[in-house]
Amino acid sequence: MTIGIVVFPGSNCDRDVYWATEGCLGMPSRFLWHESTDLSDLEAIVLPGGFSYGDYLRCGAIARFAPVLSSLIEFVNGGGKVLGICNGFQILTELGILPGALTRNNNLHFICDTVPLIVSSKRTEWFKSFEFGERILLPIAHGEGRFQCDPDVLKRLQDDDSIAIRYNENPNGSIFDVAGITNKKGNVLGMMPHPERACDNKIGGVDGKLILQSLLSK
Fold first, then answer.
1. What integer pLDDT is reported at residue 121 of this predicted model?
2. What is the per-residue pLDDT for 133?
3. pLDDT at 52 (0 to 100)
4. Active-site choice (142, 144, 196, 199)
5. Cα dihedral sign, 57-63-64-65
6. CB-CB neighbours of 71 under 10 Å
7. Which of these is catalytic: 86, 94, 142, 199?
8. Cβ neighbours of residue 118 under 8 Å, at least 6 residues apart?
9. I need a surface site. Which of 33, 97, 189, 198 has the fewest CB within 10 A?
10. How far is CA 146 from the centre of its chain?
11. What is the 8-class DSSP label of residue 180?
12. Which stretches in the chain have pLDDT values below 70?
């Protein structure tokens, strides 16, 4: 069972994810160039953080047209697990796999910090190592991480128990303190915090390691 880590021009966290999944967790992983279309040997896929295509138009707006993402839709519909981190989350919303949009932080500045989050879904398998309501710590690094959606979408996310994690101290103005959401089926998770940067007690704790373990768990 292998994890595919998609690499776009401008990705800068792909190797961090590989270090975390292959190096820290011993989960077979390989890089997946954005022009690839064959996902048949993969158990899970990660869309890493970074600045795909420089984010010159809008975060994730150009990456959404990559050939690999056409195959990703089929992968998701077939029940495959997909984790979008930071820019990966932005790409998932641009692609329409997840609802809403990620917009400029309310202070208009790039934020790089470690923030407290609350596990806020009772059903998601991605956070099964934690208790509902448990506080975890993860790093963030983004300039456009403010999650926005209309009231109907927010209600649907709440009704479906799809709001996976919320900020305990909202750093960017996200509606309802949203930091990460899943699709209704639960096999797709988009999150602004970086779990791959929290896989070692010496450099950020291990809360992220417990999340990444879910990539290959049934």
1. 97
2. 97
3. 92
4. 196
5. positive
6. 18
7. 86
8. 133, 134, 135, 136, 165, 166, 167, 168
9. 33
10. 14
11. E
12. 218
- What's the rounded Cα separation, in Å, for the pair 112 and 180? 17
Rounded CA-CA distance 216/125 in Å is 11
What is the CA angle 184-146-183, rounded to 5?
A: 10
- 127 DSSP assignment: G
Beta-bridge mates of residue 49: none
Residue whose tokens read 């797709």: 188
pLDDT of residue 218: 62
Collapsing DSSP states into helix, strand and coil, what is residue 120? coil
Q: What CATH architecture is 2-216?
A: 3-Layer(aba) Sandwich (3.40)
175 phi, psi to nearest 5 deg? -60, 135
User: Is 196 noted as a catalytic residue in this protein?
Assistant: yes
Q: Could you confirm whether 144 is annotated as catalytic? A: no
Q: Are 171 and 137 in contact (CB under 8 A)?
A: no
- Phi, psi torsion values for 145, nearest 5 degrees: -120, 10
How many Cβ atoms sit within 10 Å of the Cβ of residue 218?
Answer: 6
Residue 145 tokens, joined: 């991480």
Phi/psi zone of residue 91: left (φ > 0), alpha (ψ -120 to 50 degrees), beta? Answer: alpha
β-pair type (111-119, 135-142):
antiparallel
Active-site annotation holder among 59, 94, 149, 194: 194
How many CA atoms does the CB half-sphere of 50 hold within 13 Å? 20
198's tokens: 């929290």
Whole-number pLDDT of residue 58 = 84
